[in-house]
Amino acid sequence: MRRTAVAPAAVALMALTGCSSLQTSATEVGGVRMTDERPVRDGGTLTVALNADPDKLDPTLAQTLVGRTVFSSMCEKLYDIDQHGTVVPQLAAALPTTSADGRTVTVPVRKGLTFSDGTALDARAVVTSLLRHRDLPGSARGTELAPLRTAAATGPYTVKLTLEQPYVPLTGVLADRSGMVMSPTALKKYGKDFTNHPSCVGPFRFAERVGGDRIVLAKDPHYYDADRVHLDRVVFKPIPDGNVRLANLRSGDIQIGDQMSPVDVRSALTEPKLQLFNSPSLGYQGIGLNVGNVKGLGEKPGRIDTPIARDVRVREAFELSLDRALINKVVYQGMYEPACGPVSPQSAIAPGEPASRCPRRDIDKAKRLLREAGVGIPVAMELKVSTTPEQSRLGQVLQAMAKEAGFAVTLRPTEYATLLDETDAGRYDAFTSGWSGRLDPDGNIASFLRTQGAMNAYGLSDPDIDRLVERGRTEAEPAERTRIYAELTRRVRAEHTLIYLYRQKNYVVASTSVAGVRVYGDGLVRVRTAGYTR
User: Fold this and answer.
1) Measured between alpha carbons, how far apart are the two ends of the chain, in Å?
2) In the predicted model, what is the mean pLDDT of residues 445-473?
3) Gap between the Cα atoms of 433 and 461, Å rounded
4) pLDDT band at 123; cut points 50, 70, 90
5) HEC states along 3-27?
6) Quick check: 182 and 198 in contact, CB under 8 A?
7) 34, 180, 395, 415: which could form a disulfide with 59 (CB 3.0–4.6 Å)?
């Protein structure tokens, strides 16, 4: 794969860090790029530090970005994306073909591939995984595959998908966890305990997991491209504190630090033995407010008797108390981008003005809305944040800003996996909510904003939003889809239930002793071709 050109984001980064010119050599500190193609030797163990402990190692049930990074090394998908954000075949032999009415999709499957447990990959294995993703209780993929009526193997290596209606995002969906194919032998043997015995097609196979400490993968001799896999093992270690991740990079105890904060990136750029990768994000970060999640994900929304749940004016007042530009400057060194909608500007069908224009902070209006709502001042609310220093700083800034408008925000630092469990169950007022993003806007929207969506932890239910989600899924004409997502963005913002704050950039810091690392717009660290330099 050729070296990619330096993205425009790199220029901004260099300006912020005070560098006068771009470093393009892979061995020079400050080289901002998405790939590193220097020659590497065979052998060795690579340790990757994650900013949180992944959730379930089951593609059907998993929800976290850190989990997706682990999956990228052991669970390949029907399709993937390349450095340009283009969907390309992976386990599929070619891009899918679609009937004239958009309701029948045919996926050819590659021949001669084997799962890590020795089971052969074929069309029936693909069908088994797709139907499990769609139907398993608690599946986080259910909303993504809801339009799938049937899946059938029409030949040893041909899968026929029949849809309820045309579904434009399908190929993008199959380029993520919904497209991960699991060994049918392992699924039958382990059932829901597959998470402790995952078996897929990938460069590495699952070896062990020690909760809160490490996930170990070993090179898979069954992998179809094993000759290009250089490492013997990959170890993923959760290290939530970015300062500790950076210290471990400096000491050589780890070789890659994922999701590094802007503060740590600035520091890393002064280190001659460290290199930086970055890419723009397809996702968003914000605050989720509980307006109807009383029984947990996938259940019918109910009534919650809190000021923020009862009255949209209180939620709007809370949003108006926040200054996105100042949050970016104070917490993130100005190295992220303010955001106020679910669709990344990187998307070809991103809404333009005015849908993408963020509201300015307005304390006077916020106070007026609280008076009109007739709520007691200060309005008490608890905000759950994860236990990283960066999230702590964010929480403190949000707390101080909201106080000026009449809110008393109590911060509740919560370990990340526990935070997910509690918010999924509806045990919260507000929490810092984020998503790593998908190529098609539907992947940032449907599961979160549709009534009873697979990851709608907010209990949001709005018929207008539901209709717009369905229109966006079935409309193929790009200009019309742009108009639909502009209207959907306005409608979502009017609910003030998921308050979008900023978009991260994907910053990854690695030792210069490592090459073959790839970081694309989906935020994943790909180490299939990684290894130590000669």
Assistant:
1) 19
2) 95
3) 18
4) very high
5) CCCCCHHHHHHHHHHCCCCCCCCCC
6) yes
7) 180
The β-bridge partners of 80 are 88
Using the predicted structure, report yes or no on whether residue 31 has a pLDDT greater than 50.
Answer: no
Amino acid sitting at position 218: A
Query: Could you tell me the two tokens for 280?
Result: 């723009």
Average pLDDT value for the chain: 90
Which two structure tokens, joined as six digits, stand for 150?
A: 């049937």
Burial 420-441, CB ≥16 within 10 A → b, else e: bebbbebebbbbbbbbbbbbbb
Q: Does residue 22 have a pLDDT over 90? A: no
Tokens of 177: 């966890």
Dist CA 297 CA 456 (whole Å): 6
Alpha-carbon distance values, 369 to 361, 365, 399 (Å): 14, 6, 19
Q: Is the bond preceding residue 378 a cis peptide, omega within 30 degrees?
A: yes
Distances (CA, A) of 376 to 161, 290, 308, 379, 428: 54, 19, 12, 6, 20
Say what the pTM is.
0.82
For residues 494 and 217, give the distance between their C-alpha atoms in angstroms, rounded to a whole number: 45
Q: How far apart are CA 288 and CA 270, in angstroms?
A: 36
* DSSP letter, residue 439: S
Ordered alpha helix ranges (H), 21-174: 65-74, 123-135, 170-173
Q: 234, 256, 231: which is closest to 246 by C-alpha?
A: 256
- How big is the chain, counted in residues? 534
- Report the candidate in 492, 470, 491 with the shortest Cα–Cα distance to residue 481: 470
DSSP characters over 230-281: --SEEEEEE---HHHHHHHHHHTS-SEE-S--HHHHHHHTT-TTEEEEEEE-
- For 386-524, strand residue ranges (E) read 407-413, 430-435, 498-503, 505-511, 514-515, 518-519
Is the pLDDT at 18 greater than 50, yes or no?
no
Distance of alpha carbon 531 from its chain centroid, rounded? 25
Contact indicator for 259, 51 with CB cutoff of 8 Å: yes
DSSP state of 195: G
